[in-house]
Amino acid sequence: MIPTDTLLRLEFDKVLQAVARHARSRTTAAAVAAMAPLRDSTAIRTHWGRIEEIRGLARQRISLSIGRFDDIRPLLDEVRPDGAILAPLSLLQFIPVLESLAALARQLAPRQDIPLLRSIDPQPEAMDDILEPLSATLDDEGNILDSASRELAEIRRAKRTLAARVRRKLEEIVRKHETAIFLQDDFITIRSGRWVIPVRMDSKGMVPGVVHDVSSSGETAFMEPLEIIPFVNELENLTAEEKAEEIRILRRLSAWIREDADRIAACFGTLVELDRLDCLAAYAERFAMAVPELSDDGRLRLLSARHPLLLSLRADQPDAPPVVPLEIELTTGTETPERETSQVIVISGPNAGGKTIALKTVGLITLMALSGMAIPASPSSTVPLLDHLLVDMGDEQSIEQSLSTFSAHAAAMARILGQADQRSLVLLDELGTGTEPLQGAAIGCAVLNELRRRGALVIATTHLTEIVGFVQRTPAMRNAGMEFDSSTWTPRYRLVMGEPGQSHALETARRYGLPEPVLAFARELLGDSGTAFAGVIDELRVKRDHLATELAGLQAERARLATRERELEQQRGELEELRRTVIEQGRDEARAVVTATRRELNALLDDLRKERRKETADKLRNRAAQLEAAFAPSGQAPPSGDSLKPGDRVHVRSLGRDAQVVSVDSGRNKVRVRAGSIELEVPLHGLMQPAAPAPSARERKAPRFKAAAWTAEETPSAAELNLIGKRVDDALTELEGFIDQAVLAGQRQVRIVHGMGSGALQRAVREFLGRHPQVASFRAGEPHEGRDGATVAELE
User: Fold this and answer.
1) Does 67 belong to an annotated binding site?
2) Is 353 annotated as a binding residue?
3) Which of 5, 225, 529, 542 has the greatest count of CB atoms below 10 A from its CB?
4) pLDDT tens-place string over residues 498-528
5) Residue 336: pLDDT over 70
6) pTM above threshold 0.85
7) Using CA atoms, how far apart are residues 230 and 93, in angstroms rounded to an integer?
8) Whole-angstrom Cα distance, residue 682 to residue 679?
9) How is the beta sheet containing 424-428 ordered, strand by strand?
10) How far is CA 64 from CA 24, 85, 107, 272, 725, in A?
11) pLDDT by residue (tens digit) across 31-62?
12) What residue spans of 455-515 are helical by DSSP H?
């Protein structure tokens, strides 16, 4: 439990007041004001998650359906005794509560993206059995409506009818000449609940009736004529019946609320909790706050942190300068060079330069985070889970307790040392002040050393150079300074890690009006030591600025290289896509050419069977030459006629396979080749170097076709094709090429293996064979050939 005086000293109550401005009820505002840091990491993370779920709904333009409402818990206590009746205005306070609960139930129940809000127990519940009668009974001012009951509606209707009858009767009396001459005026009014007319005091005996009132001047008597007394008495009876019916209605409504008092009270607690969370979400959204990480290993890391109260102040003053962000990092243990973190940080610098604000910013943001609130810092920030937040800040001197400033600081440091451990954050303002500087610095150094030994995280401010020097020499401790503009002698309020700040007391005194002769005398007394120290600090600052400039340049270069890398990656992707597109187009075009050529080849073979050999051979040669020229590769020259001799192996592009040279006709640039059992004449440009060594005798004796493509290793004696596992379209394309090659190789019988499966591939293969011009007949395979899983075709 963090003491209340620590919360007040860090102005946590003012932050809660700013949050409570978003509340819809005083009950919620009180719940916000009662918030305090939590020690359960699960509870803290749950609070953060629920706030982020509400902010997520807000980004979808969905706000929690909560209207303004009052605290109904005292009314629930009032109605619990049997027979208790709530007044209409008391009952009226239940309507906004029940309406908000019903709206929340409809809003939250169907959603699956808010699991943490849905885990609040109990969930908001629509109590229409109470809300509807209340809404039908009371208007906005707490009056009971005619719709409250049928009996009440009939009574009030009768009252209105009778009242209208009384008024008409009175108007008749007023208009009568024998009565009008005695009236002070001709209006009708009600006095003491009775209908009366104004009669002159000196004539009241002339009008039969009962006097109910007299004017303040004594000149007018307000009389109830005898003629209307029976009607007015009946009206009074109806009024009594109306009152009795209203009491009965209120008793019934109170009884219904009494029956569900526990359920209403529980749901009211949920309503207050949702309103509180909505206040925290609205406050976080207003200042773009973020949820940090929660550290169990004692690490504090605040990035782009800003004091929340300064943010509120700047929001109310648009012309004010922006809040300078704070970045600070602490961790238990020794300094980590690569992350430049320490366990103890001592901030020095000028008065009014922002040291105490930096201290309060760290403390206040830590309190906010541990209370389950979003913080005004980067979401990459980390806050430690603490048992103690120990603060010595401000002048605590007390006449009543006979404490001087130093005595108060010494008592506070003793209290802090009595509680500090590895789960503590200690904030010390103006360490070592209030006594003789050397002794004060020694005590301050000793306190810092003891806190470091105990493992506490420490942030302190000081003006004493002795403490600055001690921190510079001690492991796990680090100096920091508030930046000061030497050209304008004004603070910049930016914390610079790694270098101490200068007090600049003389410049600050000049800025606040201290006379120049006084400052000159002080400068003489200060001597060279202070000037030397300031020179060292200035030299460090110049080096830091130089390194910062180089770092900015390196970061800019890194960003440029990263951009260039992304551009190159994008170009590589575009080139890869272009390559795929070109390859696909080439495949489509090649497939179209191959299909057309195969059809022409089938027609030519058909002509060949019809004995038109000469004409067919010429067409075949011309077509082959066209294809060879069209698909001639640009990277490899064909062999010359002089380099070829009978017996050489060459690759024939038109066949897609190797063949043996039979003879060379150099004059006609033609070569006669033998491929299997057929011989043909091809032009020189249709030849290439063989793709593979000549097959052995064994390979020529038992060749096999491969299902995927025709290669130089395949021989024309292949007589089997395996289509199992292929799609129908791909299988038929491959089958067509297989039959063409088999015909060229002189095969008379081939076997196509297609399997049984669903039968679709089998039917497609046999339909294709039935219409192919080179297939004379086909049949299912014999038992040793695969039965119906294969088809044997006879070729012409």
Assistant:
1) no
2) yes
3) 225
4) 878 766 666 666 666 778 777 677 767 766 5
5) no
6) no
7) 41
8) 10
9) 388-392, 424-428, 457-461, 344-348, 477-485, 490-497
10) 11, 33, 8, 12, 59
11) 999 999 999 999 999 999 999 999 999 999 99
12) 465-473, 505-511
**Beta-strand pair 687-688/720-722:** unpaired
Which residues contact residue 172 at a Cβ distance below 8 angstroms, ignoring those fewer than 6 apart? none
Q: Is 350 annotated as a binding residue?
A: yes
Rounded-to-integer distance, Cα 87 and Cα 702, Å: 108
- Each residue's pLDDT tens digit, 126-165: 999 999 999 999 999 999 999 999 999 999 999 999 888 8
355 is in an annotated binding site: yes
CA distance linking residue 518 with residue 509, whole number of Å: 10
Of 128-142, 276-290, 672-686, 766-780, least confident by mean pLDDT is: 672-686
Instruction: Establish whether 351 is an annotated binding residue.
Output: yes
pLDDT in tens, 265-296: 999 999 999 999 999 999 999 999 999 999 98
**What domains sit in the chain, N to C, each tagged with a CATH number?**
4-127+260-286 (1.10.1420), 148-252 (1.10.1420.10), 295-514 (3.40.50.300), 633-694 (2.30.30.140), 696-796 (3.30.1370.110)
Smallest CA-to-CA distance from 134 within 86, 91, 105, 101 is with 91
d(CA 382, CA 718): 74
Checking if the pLDDT of 672 tops 70, the result is: yes
Count of Cβ atoms closer than 10 Å to residue 440 Cβ = 21
Q: Does residue 667 have a known ligand-binding role?
A: no
Binding site annotation covers 786? no
352 annotated to bind ligand: yes
